[in-house]
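Below sits our specimen:

——
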Amino acid sequence: MQLVIRQYRPSDRDSVWTLFSIGTLEHIGPWAVVLPAGWVRLVYYCCYEVFARFVRKKLQTDMQDITGSFLSSPDDCFWVAEAKVDGKSQIIGMVAVEGKQIGKERYGEQFRMIISPSYRRAGLGTRMTQTALEFCKERGFSKLVLETSSIQTAAMAMYEKLGFTHILSHNKTSIPAVPSSIMNNLCSGCSLHHDSTKDRIQYRQ
C-alpha cells in the first residue's frame, strides 16, 4: 500500500466528509450495560441523534468550507492521508491544526484527527500527529495542544509515547445535548455520556 500525507484539496471534500461522519458516529458504542431489547434500541436512537446532529452542525460550519476554515491562514493547515489500494486512491485519515495566540504565546491546536477503522493500529495516527508537530515547529509555535476523551485509551497511549503530557480534565463537550433526562438515565452505556471526561494534553517544542 502506497501512502502519502498531503494538504487537503477541494476534490477531497466528499471523501473527507464521509470519513468524518464514520469516525464520529462510531463513538455511539459499545454498550456498557445490559438492557432489554426495546431499551437498547431507544438508547441507540438517542445516542445516534446526538452524534448525527453534531456531524450535521460541523458539515454546515467549519467542515463545509475546509479551505476557508483551515487553509486561509499560514498558521492553519488540514492534511489527509491518501492511500493507493488495488490501484485506487482512498482518503484514509485526516487531521487539522489551527494557530492560536494567548498574550505573546503562539501555539497550535489539533482538531479532526480521524483514521479509517480499516487502517488503524498501523502507525498512521502517529504519522499524522508527527506531521502536525512538524508544522507547529515550522511556524514557531511553542506547543501543540489537543483534546481526546478518556475512553480513547489507545489514542492517549499514542500521544504519551510521542511526548505529550496531560494538563487538564473536564466534562464539557461540544456535542449538542438531547432533551429531558433520557440521556442521563439511559445512556450510561453510550460512549458519549454527558459526564464522560475530556482530557486536554500538550506537546511543548
